[in-house]
């Protein structure tokens, strides 16, 4: 279940990042409420996953998946450019996430 919790936490981490952009500096009510709520849910599921996973593995994968999701959906929703440098960085993050999962032994 730890990996399921971690994946759920990462999904809410992406939602947090995207909604934070929509808050316009926390001047818009509903995006601000969404940002706070998704942060709480994300950290809660991260904490559940860390009952089993090492913090060095769980936290790093959480932030890595959050980064990948944020860049991907930032491009789709906010029309941000995906450059070759971003693609290469994606590949490095994915490699790191896979390596950490394989090394976790859980």
From TrEMBL:
<keyword id="KW-1003">Cell membrane</keyword>
<keyword id="KW-0813">Transport</keyword>
<keyword id="KW-1133">Transmembrane helix</keyword>
<dbReference type="GO" id="GO:0022857">
    <property type="term" value="F:transmembrane transporter activity"/>
</dbReference>
<dbReference type="InterPro" id="IPR045324">
    <property type="entry name" value="Small_multidrug_res"/>
</dbReference>
<feature type="transmembrane region" description="Helical">
    <location>
        <begin position="59"/>
        <end position="78"/>
    </location>
</feature>
<comment type="similarity">
    <text>Belongs to the drug/metabolite transporter (DMT) superfamily. Small multidrug resistance (SMR) (TC 2.A.7.1) family.</text>
</comment>
<dbReference type="InterPro" id="IPR037185">
    <property type="entry name" value="EmrE-like"/>
</dbReference>
<dbReference type="GO" id="GO:0005886">
    <property type="term" value="C:plasma membrane"/>
</dbReference>
<feature type="transmembrane region" description="Helical">
    <location>
        <begin position="27"/>
        <end position="47"/>
    </location>
</feature>
<dbReference type="Pfam" id="PF00893">
    <property type="entry name" value="Multi_Drug_Res"/>
</dbReference>
<feature type="transmembrane region" description="Helical">
    <location>
        <begin position="84"/>
        <end position="104"/>
    </location>
</feature>
<protein>
    <submittedName>
        <fullName>Quaternary ammonium compound-resistance protein SugE</fullName>
    </submittedName>
</protein>
<keyword id="KW-0472">Membrane</keyword>
<keyword id="KW-0812">Transmembrane</keyword>
<dbReference type="InterPro" id="IPR000390">
    <property type="entry name" value="Small_drug/metabolite_transptr"/>
</dbReference>
């Amino acid at each position: 279940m730890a990996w399921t919790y971690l994946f759920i936490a990462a999904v809410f981490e992406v939602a947090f990042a995207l909604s934070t952009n929509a808050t316009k500096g926390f001047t818009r009510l509903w995006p601000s409420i969404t940002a706070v709520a998704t942060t709480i849910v994300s950290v809660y599921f991260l904490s559940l996953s860390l009952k089993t996973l090492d913090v060095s593995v769980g936290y790093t994968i959480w932030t890595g998946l959050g980064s990948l999701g944020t860049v991907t959906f930032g491009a789709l929703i906010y029309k941000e450019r995906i450059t070759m440098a971003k693609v290469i960085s994606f590949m490095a993050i994915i490699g790191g996430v896979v390596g950490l999962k394989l090394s976790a032994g859980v």
